[in-house]
Design goal:
The complex is a heterodimer of chains A (320) and B (266).
Chain A lengths: L4 E4 L2 E2 L2 E2 L1 H14 L4 E6 L3 H5 L7 E5 L9 H15 L3 E5 L2 H13 L4 E5 L1 E4 L4 E7 L4 E7 L4 E5 L14 E4 L9 E7 L12 E5 L8 H12 L4 E5 L1 H5 L20 E5 L5 H4 L7 E6 L12 E4 L2 H14 L2
Parallel strand pairs in A: 1-4, 1-6, 4-5, 5-12, 6-11, 7-11, 14-15, 14-16, 16-17, 17-18
Antiparallel strand pairs in A: 2-3, 8-9, 9-10
Helix pairs in contact in A: 3-4, 5-8
Chain B lengths: L1 E5 L2 E2 L10 E3 L4 E3 L7 E2 L1 H17 L2 E7 L5 H10 L3 E5 L9 H15 L4 E5 L10 H9 L3 E10 L3 E8 L2 E8 L2 E5 L11 H9 L2 E4 L12 H4 L2 E7 L8 E2 L5 H14 L4
Parallel strand pairs in B: 1-6, 1-8, 6-7, 7-13, 8-12, 9-12
Antiparallel strand pairs in B: 2-5, 3-4, 9-10, 10-11
The chains are: A alpha/beta (320), B alpha/beta (266).
C-alpha cells in the first residue's frame, strides 16, 4: 500500500540529524509509491532541507524559537505539516522531541502512537510497528487503527536515506505561545563521546569486582578509538558507585544500539538487556557459562575478564 | 495543593528471564508463580515527589490506579507512603485498553475529583515502557506538561521542574494545573514503616467504574483502543552464541578480533 510519510526531523548543528536521515531512509522503503516529506524547525531549517536525503518536500521554519524544544510550539507546527502533507504515517525519533511529541501529536490528531519502535514493516495491509516491552524480555507488534499512524523509532533502526535533498520547501509558521517556559539548561559533564552515539560500547558489571575494573574498560575503549568507543555500566555497578549514572545502560539508564556491544562481567538481567538488546553484535565476556548474557550474544568468551580484556587490548592495538 | 498520583500495578520487572512466559493465544504475560505484582517503580518515585511537595507546602495527595482488584496493593503502598486517599478505576470495560483509553479514564476521574492542581505520573510504566499516559492525561485535560523530571518544586506561580535531557538537563516552569512525569533520577521513594502500612490497610479505597466517570463502556478498554496489539512474543535469542575457543586468553582474543574484523564489525 502506498504511504504518505512525514518524518519529523531534528537539526544537529544546522543539518538534519543522523536519526532524521535514518527515518527518511525507512520512509523511502515504506512509501511504496507514496510521498516522503520532512519537517525541520529551527535556525538553518531551510538550508538543511537541501540535505534531507530521501524527502521530496520539506516543511520548514527558520524561527530560532524552535531551537529549544518546547512541546506546544513544535506540536502546532508539526500538526500543520501533517495536515498539509496529507500524511497517513508520521515517523519521529525516540528522542527528547519524540517522547513528548509522539503521544501529544497522536492525541491531537485523534489517533495513536507506537513508541520506541525498533522496526516498522509493511506486511501488505496496515503497517506493523514492533517495539520491546517488559524490559526487553518481549517484543510487541502493533497496528494502528486510526490515521495517521504515529511512531517514534529508535536510532539505528533504519539505514540512512540516499539521494538528494528536498526539492521543494513549504514555510511553516513561526513559534507560537508555550505555557511551559524554559528557564535554562545545563550540559552534563561528559568525558567525550556519549554512549548513545558511540559505534562501540563496552560495559562493565558487578563482576568486575572493584571500581578499578573500569580503568580496564576505558583502556579497551581507547584501544578501539575514543572517537568510536565509549564505556557504559550496569545498574549494579552504578549503584555500587563504581561508575557515573550518566553511563548506565538499561531500562532506567540509557538505551544504546551500537554496532558492537561488549558486555564484560555482566550477567544480562532483563533490566540491562532492555538498554542494549538492539545492538547489532553483542560480545559477552563472563566466567559463568550459564550467564543470561550468552543468550543474547553473537560471540562469547567464557573466562576471567582480567585475563581476556588485556589480551583483547593487545590484539586491537595490532589493528592500528 | 491537591496532587493526584497515577499508579500502576505491574508484573515484577525483576522476574528472572527464565520465569517470564507469554500466552501466545491471548498475547498476555503469564504471571510467574510465587512472584507478586508490584507498584511500577517510576510511579513510586512520582508519589515520593508529590509527598515532598505536600510536606513542604501542605495539601493533599490522592492516588488513582486503573486495574484489577489486585491493584489495591499498589494503592495501599502509596497510601502507606503518606497519600491521603485512594481511588481504584475498576471495570471489565477498562480491560485490554491502550495508553489512550487508560489516560481517558484517568482524566475523567481527575475531573470528577474536581479540585486537582497537579497530576504526577511515572515517566513510563515499567512493563510496557510506552511513556504515554502522563502526556495523554495532560492532553485530555488541556493542561501543560513536563516529562522525565529529576526535580520538582512548587513555586508561588506553579511548578519548577528539572527535566532530564539526552546530554544534561533543563529547568522549566509552568502554571497550575499541570502534569509532571517523574524519572528515576529523582531519587528513591521512601519505605513505609509498619504503623503506616497498618493504617493504610484500614483505609477505604473508592471504587469507580466507567459509568461513575460518565464514560461509555464502548469508548474505553479494548473497544476504544486505537493501538492494537497483534502479537506479543519472546524474541528468539541468538542462542547459537559462538563461544570463542582457544587454549589461552591471547588465542581467544585473537580469534575474536579476527571474527569481528571479518564481519566488518570492527
Amino acid at each position: 500500500m502506498a504511504n504518505n510519510i512525514l518524518v519529523v526531523g531534528e537539526l544537529d548543528g544546522g543539518a538534519p540529524s543522523t536519526t532524521t536521515l535514518e527515518l527518511l531512509g525507512g520512509a523511502q522503503g515504506l512509501a511504496a509509491g507514496g510521498s516522503v516529506s520532512v519537517s525541520l524547525l529551527g535556525t538553518g531549517a531551510t538550508a538543511a532541507a537541501g540535505q534531507a536525503a530521501g524527502a521530496a518536500k520539506a516543511y520548514v521554519s527558520d524561527d530560532a524559537a524552535y531551537d529549544t524544544f518546547r512541546g506546544e510550539q513544535w506540536l502546532a507546527a508539526v500538526q500543520e505539516a501533517v495536515t498539509q502533507s496529507g500524511a497517513n504515517v508520521v515517523l519521529i525519533g525516540q528522542s527528547v522531541v519524540g517522547r513528548e511529541l509522539g503521544p501529544r501529536l497522536a492525541s491531537r490528531l485523534g489517533t495513536a502512537a507506537a513508541m520506541d519502535c525498533v522496526s516498522v514493516a509493511d506486511a501488505g495491509g496496515a503497517l506493523q510497528f514492533t517495539r520491546p516491552a517488559y524490559g526487553g524480555n518481549a517484543l510487541a507488534t502493533y497496528t494502528i487503527a486510526t490515521s495517521p499512524a504515529v511512531a517514534t523509532v529508535r536510532a539505528k533502526s533504519f539505514e540512512p536515506a540516499s539521494g538528494g535533498g528536498a526539492g521543494e520547501t513549504v514555510a511553516l509558521p513561526g513559534a507560537g505561545e508555550s505555557r511551559v517556559a524554559v528557564l535554562g539548561s545545563e550540559k552534563a559533564e561528559s568525558t567525550g563521546l556519549q554512549i548513545q552515539d558511540a559505534a562501540v560500547v563496552i560495559s562493565g558489571g558487578r563482576g568486575l569486582g572493584a571500581p578499578e575494573g573500569f580503568q580496564q574498560m576505558e583502556a579497551l575503549a581507547a584501544a578501539i578509538g575514543t572517537d568510536k568507543a565509549a564505556v557504559g555500566a550496569s545498574r549494579a555497578a552504578v549503584d555500587l558507585g563504581w561508575y557515573p549514572p550518566s553511563q548506565q545502560v538499561g531500562l532506567t539508564g540509557k538505551v544504546v544500539n551500537p554496532d558492537l556491544y561488549i558486555a564484560v562481567a555482566i550477567s544480562g538481567a532483563s533490566q540491562h538487556m532492555a538498554g542494549c538488546s538492539g545492538s547489532k553484535v553483542i560480545v559477552a565476556i563472563n566466567r559463568d557459562k550459564d550467564a543470561n548474557i550468552f543468550g543474547f550474544a553473537k560471540y562469547g568468551i567464557v573466562g576471567d575478564w582480567k585475563a581476556v580484556v588485556p589480551a583483547l587490548i593487545e590484539e586491537l592495538k595490532k589493528l592500528k | 495543593m491537591h496532587i493526584v498520583v497515577c499508579a500502576k500495578q505491574i508484573p515484577d520487572p525483576e522476574t528472572p528471564p527464565a520465569a517470564f512466559k507469554i500466552d501466545a493465544a491471548t498475547n498476555k504475560v503469564i504471571p510467574a508463580a510465587g512472584i507478586a505484582p508490584v507498584l511500577s517503580q517510576f510511579d513510586g518515585i512520582a508519589a515520593e515527589a508529590a509527598l515532598r511537595i505536600k510536606e513542604a507546602k501542605g495539601g493533599k495527595v490522592t492516588v488513582i490506579s486503573l486495574g484489577a482488584e489486585s491493584a489495591q496493593a499498589a494503592i495501599k503502598q502509596v497510601l502507606a507512603m503518606g497519600a491521603d486517599e485512594g481511588v481504584l478505576l475498576k471495570d471489565a470495560a477498562f480491560d485490554d485498553g491502550d495508553s489512550y483509553t487508560t489516560a481517558k479514564a484517568l482524566a475523567a476521574a481527575i475531573k470528577k475529583l474536581g479540585d486537582v492542581d497537579a497530576v504526577f505520573c511515572g515517566r513510563q510504566a515499567a512493563d510496557w515502557d510506552m511513556g504515554q499516559v502522563g502526556l495523554l492525561v495532560a492532553e485530555e485535560l488541556g493542561w501543560p506538561v513536563a516529562i522525565i523530571a529529576k526535580g520538582v518544586e512548587a513555586t508561588d506561580s506553579g511548578l519548577k521542574i528539572q527535566r532530564v535531557l539526552a546530554d544534561g538537563f533543563e529547568t522549566v516552569e509552568m502554571p497550575l494545573p499541570a502534569v509532571v512525569t517523574v524519572s528515576n533520577e529523582f531519587g528513591d521513594p521512601r519505605y513505609p514503616k509498619l504503623p503506616q502500612i497498618m493504617a493504610a490497610a484500614k483505609k477505604t479505597v473508592t471504587p469507580w467504574a466507567a459509568a461513575d466517570l460518565g464514560l461509555d463502556a464502548g469508548s474505553v478498554g479494548k473497544a476504544g483502543a486505537r493501538l492494537q496489539l497483534q502479537k506479543l512474543f519472546i524474541p528468539e535469542k541468538s542462542s547459537k552464541v559462538e563461544l570463542i575457543a582457544g587454549d589461552t586468553p591471547q588465542e581467544q582474543a585473537a580469534a575474536l578480533v579476527a571474527k569481528l574484523v571479518a564481519d566488518k564489525t570492527l
